[in-house]
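Justification of computing resources. Each target in the renewal requires a structure prediction run like the one illustrated here; the chain below, 384 residues long, is used simply to show the kind of job we budget for.
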Amino acid sequence: MNQIRSVQYAHFGVLFSISMLAGFGLEQFLKKRLSASQYALGLSWLLFITIFSLTCFLLSSQDTASYYSYSSRWLGSFILLLIAVGIGVTGTVLRKRKIAGVLLAFLVLVNLLYFKPGFTPVAKIIPQRWRFQNPEPLSLLAPLHEDKSLYRIIGFGKVLSDNYNLLYRLNDLRVYEALYPEAYVRMIAEIEGFAMEHALVQFLKSGWHFTISEKNLTHPLLNKLGLKYLFSDYEINSDGWELVNRTSFYFLYRNPNAWSRVWIKNDFIRRIDFEGAQIKSYLPDQVLIRLNNIENAELILADQYAVGWKAISFPSRSQRRIFPEEGIFRKVALKKGDQEIKFYYQPWGFRIGLYFSLTSLALFLSGTGFGFFRKKFSSAGLNV
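Resulting structure tokens:
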């Protein structure tokens, strides 16, 4: 239970939810609110899903098959569910619901205690973990507090958990902005040299994220991604990476060739300009970039290109279309007179939801007011 905050142990949450539903179903079963026909219908659906899943497994490639073998616990949970439905049908037909109920309760315990992860009979539960207090950051991270630029990091070994990405707002390349867009996966595949059809296997083998091997640390795409710091529990021997801090067990390396988060691209003269644009303000839903007399060029922001982001130029306050750069970054065409470009997040889904919410609130208040005054006038009329 000490580990369920990690996405790697999401399987526990599924099993826990199944167990809660099983408890509710057991109550309905013992109170005779479920008939044999309902159980038979459920069993038929499960048998169909089982046959369909096995067919997909047999027709899958070798890499996909290895993924299924990696997730064998899911199949075990599914078999438990089939057994539970069978017990329910048998207990209903033979009118032995109490005996069947005991067997079902036993299956619920097996589901929780045997199929792990993080919830086993021998696991030690640490109550302090449930107080939602972030652990103290490693002393090794001290140089990062002094670096005010925007950069990405990566960890080797067990020195840096993926959750540091959220706990201390460290932009970890392994969990790229907490999302895995296809363009990002393709870029990692190019760096690591694996085919896209093997991406899922690489993701699972690395521990539910994508990582970079030591031999590929000199790949030029890592500079463009802004990979500036590397944490490791062993010494790294790679050209271009310099040791900046170390403890008895950990090492911190810096890549002096890492690109900044924003730059100017001019295809006509084939030049990259890092001095022509500076980030003035950087927030999760808004980025303001100051320009230095740039025109007839393109502004590149090395953040994820995604639907919902918009751009506006100042002082003209004109909307600018955002294009994908290499499928993953954001790109805006610059015009003469542009002094600042502001990226802001405004998805249509949020706006539509907001409009409907405000409209519903207005209708509710109008209806309530109309009903109140109507009742008041009606009472006044009756009193006359």
